[in-house]
Amino acid sequence: MTKSKSKSKPSTRAATRKPSKSKPRSRSAQSRSTTRTDTKHARILAMLRTAAGATIAALMTATGWQQHSVRGFLAGVVRKKLDLNLVSEPTNKGRVYRLKDPQASSGVGSRVKQAA
Questions:
Q1: Could you tell me the strand order of the sheet in which 94-99 lies?
Q2: What pLDDT does residue 72 have?
């Protein structure tokens, strides 16, 4: 003969759970509003904002990144996420990247004109 399984009471975990004593997450809103100046991203943006601009080689030495990482940052973060108007010009030193003055023209509008 087989034994019949006894039915156990349904679990009442929610009733036995103690309330957590963690603090509310108000700090995340404060940390987003402040910008850090000691990051690699901030260094690249500072170099691009200068009138002389920066070459890929200069950005590589400033960050320690490889060439494809610098180009990916320029395309993905600077152009797409931050929506800044990044222009590149060939010079005798090589291709120089700089941020175009946002007061002169909006970044999105001039890029749309270039594509058309």
A1: 54-55, 94-99, 86-91
A2: 96
Average pLDDT of 9-37?
61
Q: For every residue of the chain, which 3-state class applies, written as one string?
A: CCCCCCCCCCCCHHHHCCCCCCCCCCHHHHHHHCCCCCCHHHHHHHHHHCCCCEEHHHHHHHHCCCHHHHHHHHHHHHHHHCCCCEEEEEECCEEEEEECCCCCCCHHHHHHHHHC
In this predicted model, what pLDDT tens digit does every residue of 26-71 receive, in sequence order?
555 554 556 778 899 999 999 999 999 999 999 999 999 999 999 9
86-95: Cβ within 8 A, 24+ apart: 86/48, 89/53, 93/55, 94/55, 94/56, 94/57, 95/55, 95/56
Q: What is the mean pLDDT of residues 95-107?
A: 72
Query: What is the chain's Cα-based Rg?
Result: 27
Token pair of 16, please? Answer: 């036995």
